[in-house]
Specification:
Layout lengths: L2 E2 L12 H13 L4 E3 L8 H10 L7 E6 L16 H15 L4 E6 L8 H13 L3 E7 L3 H10 L4 E5 L11 H8 L2 E5 L31 H21 L3 H11 L3 E2 L6 H10 L6 H10 L12 H5 L4
Parallel strand pairs: 1-2, 2-3, 3-4, 4-5, 5-6, 6-7, 7-8
Helix pairs in contact: 1-2, 1-9, 2-3, 4-5, 5-6, 7-10, 8-9
This protein binds 2'-monophosphoadenosine-5'-diphosphate (ATR).
Length: 311
């Protein structure tokens, strides 16, 4: 299990720096050995916090960051972020914020439609050989883009949204990763909090919370998704675990590496504990009966979000 560090930045509402710092330290103390951030989370603030808080504990965890997710004012990717010169500059800026001389994993955050993936994979392969990154990853790319990149230099990890509410990767992407020996990393494994049980109505999302613009958190979609989550909560309670823990155990059972995010130390500890759960396969089948494929109401993101995905 990894610790997703987007929530350390003000994306799902405000976050106090002192609370984010405590959560990060609690995550490491609770046994997380993988921290996954990106240069765009809080425009560098997540990386900066990790650099300041964890500089002295750098040998305790695998550190991953991402580049190439910057968007214009319409939410559309800025072209050219897959070009070699951009990649090298972005890495140097991330390393400086992270106070590190290398990262273990460096992901392309979104495919740059203006640069052939072979060119981006080529420079990432060079950075691996130079020892500045341990390996490279891709995020939200199609199986065919994954294969093209892998042919240039082996891909270490592929990250994509995956949860009981987002199961499309099961069709081709997860099998392609298994075939190529690429680790499949599941972001938003708790459905961006819907499967954590704390978001019940639109009023639970403060102004500025990114999720307000996400169709799954709007109107009738939100009601439908909360009622699905309530039924998962009943199943979890029967098993003596929380909804989030049941869902994380299911994601792991599916062969994926989840990176749940949280602003709260207590939730980081509870999520770490989910990594040690042993639940019977019949429990996971019941979860899938409650939330069949495509059961979640609403698209995974708004139009510009979807436009930036490589399908
Ligand atoms: P993302 O990858 O986009 O961050 P996620 O991991 O699916 O999304 O969900 C993150 C959300 O789940 C956060 O809003 C977080 O809320 P807190 O910051 O209040 O914790 C929520 N979340 C994470 N762990 C949780 C837990 N153990 N119980 C309840 N909610 C949790």
């Amino acid at each position: 299990m990894g610790f997703g560090a987007m929530n350390l930045a003000p994306v799902y509402g405000r976050v106090e720096e002192s609370e984010a710092a405590d959560t990060l330290l609690a995550a490491l103390d609770a046994g997380f050995t993988f921290v996954d951030t990106a240069d765009i989370y809080g425009r560098g603030s997540s990386e900066d916090l990790i650099g300041r808080m964890l500089e002295k504990r750098r040998d305790e965890f695998v550190l991953a960051t991402k580049f190439g997710g910057n968007q214009d004012s319409h939410g559309i990717l800025i072209p050219g972020m897959g070009r070699p010169d951009y990649v090298r500059r972005a890495l140097d800026a991330s390393l400086s914020r992270l106070r590190a001389d290398h990262v273990d994993l460096y992901y392309l955050h979104r495919l740059d439609p203006t640069t052939p993936i072979e060119e981006t994979a080529g420079v990432l392969g060079e950075l691996v050989e130079a020892g500045k990154i341990g390996g490279y990853g891709l995020s939200e790319v199609s199986p065919s883009t994954l294969r093209r990149a892998h042919a240039v230099h082996p891909v270490t990890a592929l990250q994509t949204e995956y949860s009981p509410f987002q199961r499309a990767p099961e069709e081709e992407l997860i099998p392609a990763c298994a075939e190529l020996g690429v680790t499949f990393v599941a972001y938003s494994p708790l459905g961006r909090g819907l499967l954590g049980g704390t978001v019940r109505t639109a009023a639970d999302l403060e102004e500025g919370d990114w999720r307000r613009g996400n169709p799954r958190f709007q109107g009738g979609n939100l009601e439908r998704n909360v009622s699905l989550a309530d039924r998962v909560a009943t199943l979890a309670a029967e098993q003596g675990v929380t909804t989030a823990q049941l869902v994380l155990a299911w994601v792991i059972d599916r062969g994926a590496l989840p990176i749940p995010g949280t602003r709260k130390a207590a939730n980081a500890r509870a999520n770490a504990a989910a990594g040690d759960l042993t639940l019977d396969a019949s429990v996971f089948r019941r979860l899938e009966d409650i939330v069949p494929r495509d059961a979640a109401a609403g698209a995974q993101g708004n139009e510009s979000y979807l436009a930036n995905l490589d399908k």
